[in-house]
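Workshop exercise sheet. Pairs work together: one partner reads the sequence aloud, the other fills in the structure field after running the prediction. Swap roles for the next sheet.
Pair: D.N. / O.F.
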Amino acid sequence: MDLLKILPLAFVMVAGPQIISSFFFATSPGWKKISAAYVCGAAISIALVVAASYLLRKGAGGNEKSGSGLTATDYVILALLAFAIVRTYLKRNESEPPKWMGKLQSATPKTALVLGFLLLGFFPSDLITSISIGGFLSEHGDPYWHVLPFLFLTLLLLSLPALTVLFLGERGEAILPKVRDWMNTNSWIVSEVVLVFFIAIVLSG
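Structure field:
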């Protein structure tokens, strides 16, 4: 099923400042409301971008197959994914989080909502991924609701830091910084593997 093919891209969506922000929010005062607002903002933006891409592709009409069996949309998706791979590789050594992240532990729910909306909807790699998924589903004749498992997995990954604190309490708060640092250093590898995997899916038709 095509919906199972896109699930791994959830890891691309959260790799980088997206999941790092979740860690900061999970260890801040009022973390429950702030983390929930962050996830809600992410849900809204992802759903909107995928829907826009899906509907635009639907409105483009029939598919023009090339000799290789790929459509024009397939080539656009492949170009976007290739760009994401190059960008992720070039950014791999930027292991230090942006300076603005230092202020996240004093963020309000409103700030978290806006950040979730912007990061998961319009961060370059996430924007490319959401556009690719919308086009992919439309291109293969899948209904829009097939994006829901991908959306759920993405939001679950974003919620993991808060869930860790919820279930482990102070012990969870102690281990979160260590996990955050490891993910910040190695998330680019996960992103590259999944992006290459998705390219293989598109090429296989």
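Discussion prompt: The two ends are 12 Å apart (CA to CA). What would you look at next?
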